[in-house]
Amino acid sequence: MTVQPMFLSKEELQALTNRIQYAAQVRTLRAMGIQHCVRPDGSVAVMRGHIESMFGMQSRVTTRTPVEPNWGALHATSA
Prior knowledge:
mainly alpha
């Protein structure tokens, strides 16, 4: 199983916004209602999980460890 990076890549961000310049990406993200942060160098960070949840995608599968019921508690008598 391949683990995806936490943030969208530069290419993914350009594909999402259809913009190349950082300022234009920010304007587009704001218009789309997508949470983002601007880094000190001006580049934009968008969390992959936010995009996946916005568009109804699930990339992370959560697995639960089965828990064996306490069968003894069913047969216990109160004193």
